[in-house]
Amino acid sequence: MVVLTGAGISAESGVPTFRGPDGLWGRYRPEELATPEAFARNPLRVWEWYAWRRELIARAEPNPAHQTLAEMEAALPGFLLITQNVDGLHQRAGNRRVVELHGNLWRVRCPRERQVWEDHRVPLPELPPRCPTCGAFLRPDVVWFGEPLPPEEWQHAMEAAREAEIFLVIGTSGIVEPAASLPRLARVHGAYLVEFNLEDTPLTPLMDEIWRGPVSETLPRWWARFQRGK
Description:
This protein is α/β, with parallel strands linked by helices. It is built from nine helices and nine strands. The protein has a single domain (2-229), classed as TPP-binding domain (Rossmann fold), CATH 3.40.50.1220.
């Protein structure tokens, strides 16, 4: 079983989504906050936005959908979770077999030395934070607009999609590429596809099974039914 999650699963923990009528990109310009060029122009402004998100996420808790995915991993040896989210809530819920396509907000990276490490301090004592070795401004270890996905993570995700027997699509808009291509790849290779979302997406026509409603309610019900059917 392979799972692809998007912002919709964390929205039920109080983490704002990026798209839709109330999404963050409706209020902020991505090119001013989430590009290498924005960071080069004004690292303080970029970091103020990410510091705000870190503080918001630090108050959030994994919801029943996150917890159900952790239960799935514990029960299914072939389980893999692929996420577009950078909030770390899957790991806090107990998942360990996680492929992070877009990075993680709780890691920082030195652009000069290319070192990466975790930093869970909230609030950060200095903005922008600096590399303790060379003094360069650190950046969040996330994928910004115009940047490629981490090659190892993307390769792992594609291999899993090709091998999946069941592929769950949870809380994703289905429009962010290349992640949105993974369910299509799984479909081509014969996987059974299930979508959990509040509304239809461009991926909906591919699905064998569709669950509408809050994923914190629908995913636990699907998992319980799946276990009874084994």
